[in-house]
Amino acid sequence: MTILALTGGVGGAKLSLGLTHVLTPNEITFVVNVGDDFEHMGLSISPDIDTLTYTLAGVVNEATGWGRADESWDCLTELKSFEADTWFQLGDRDLALHLFRTALLKRGKSLTEVTDIVCSRLGVKYKVAPATDASLRTRVVTDQGSLAFQDYFVRLKCEPKVSELEYHQRTIASLSPAIDPDDVSGVVICPSNPFLSIDPILELDEMRSLLTNRDFPVVAVSPIVGDRAIKGPTAKMMREMNMSATCAGVAQHYHELLDGYVIDDIDAHHASEIEALGIRIRNAPSIMRTIEDKVALAKVCVDFLEELR
Amino acid sequence: MTILALTGGVGGAKLSLGLTHVLTPNEITFVVNVGDDFEHMGLSISPDIDTLTYTLAGVVNEATGWGRADESWDCLTELKSFEADTWFQLGDRDLALHLFRTALLKRGKSLTEVTDIVCSRLGVKYKVAPATDASLRTRVVTDQGSLAFQDYFVRLKCEPKVSELEYHQRTIASLSPAIDPDDVSGVVICPSNPFLSIDPILELDEMRSLLTNRDFPVVAVSPIVGDRAIKGPTAKMMREMNMSATCAGVAQHYHELLDGYVIDDIDAHHASEIEALGIRIRNAPSIMRTIEDKVALAKVCVDFLEELR
Predict the structure, then answer these.
(1) Taking the model in full, what pTM does it have?
(2) I need a surface site. Which of A32, A197, B83, B189 has the fewest CB within 10 A?
(3) CATH class, A2-136+170-308 region
């Protein structure tokens, strides 16, 4: 039986790395958001899969949480001199993965197969699965119109005011064949952006149905600590969508999906509000700076699942 | 009125650079082979256009004659670790041009427009025109079957034995709109491979008809010096196709197209054989090592055209 960890990029990848120190490759599958995937200058780019893969392979840039360590930027420098689009940070080493993925997809490989090959070449022994092989693209409906995710997130730096998210093709997209719905013993929802990273996974009909008719527990880790997003626009988006930008607001958003919820000690005062929703609470330090932080938080999640089983 | 210089990559680019020292941007248009163009890992690559553009921009790698000076190879190093196709030498800086071109083509720009933009961004004031905007792909028929050009040239290092060349779409492809057939005062055929670089231009119906019904002279510079190709597989291919692998053999191949032919001093003994074809001869040092060599040979070509006019 396998635990599924639902994850986006940077924050989710930190907990995911922790989980690999607590569980063996047979015990966990990482289900990664593909709603941020896009085509850029002919390249097929999967930012969240790459961040997770680089993190698990130990080659991620620790300072940013994404991209390659020891990166060089000669290509991007030249692109600037061409006055080309350079809002997406294409490092020279990172480019190799985009080219490799693009070539394999063009040869007819699925994103699941490509991700498997990339993990194997980078020495990642854990199973990393795109949520779906379908081309699922999140659109962000804002005061500046409906934007492709990367337009909103990278090019416009999350500045437009969000009113709604759109997850295209969610009803027809199948789960990646790397995910076995009959073999799930629990789910960890990583502390990623609920709207941009987790909902595009949850909105897949097959995932929704797996989580609705289940005999295994689901726990989430709050991406909001001390009423602020650890990273990224989660809190800003929640305010814009008239939600409470707290760990409790996120719990309300996931609500019936959750059996357990891990919040930071600093947010203990939100506990009763969340427990009123029928969700069990575990307090644990949730800001992951060191590998020890990541492993400790991962252990809390796995123990919590065991307790709820 | 404009001189057209028909050129492929390295050898042709050397003479082309010389021509820019002898003629102003209004006086010459470079018409470049696109039969070597190909798609690689999602990128649209035009090797001959790039070699010429880099050469005229002064950023070419002088040691190889192609690619960028001060190149770095971090992307290619990573591609090797992915066990990806690395037979095509993708430098980090060079990649920027491939990405930029690919992005512009995807936005609906023609190759003529893209080439114009690239030249302008690289500070090249001369008009560089792809022979055609059509997707013209040379195939090399060999003892190992019919091969895409890059397969033959780069991946298989010109080792297969050539029996024939195939120029697809040649009858339907139009000349680039950057070429004005009514404004031509002369043609220089650069010392590029006749089969791989020049014939794919000559085989375009509009070019063939321009050169057949003309009131301007055409001169070529022999790519064979001392019965050897200066660079690349010209002589080897000629032997395989049962042609005389000499400057005279190339003259016979071009034959009725030529009014004048520039051969190296070392090949003076071939002169009478070529003159018997009704082609005028000019002897000049044809191995271009220094910029002075290039300018001197270019001047011979331009003076020769003037004389034949």
Answers:
(1) 0.92
(2) B83
(3) alpha beta
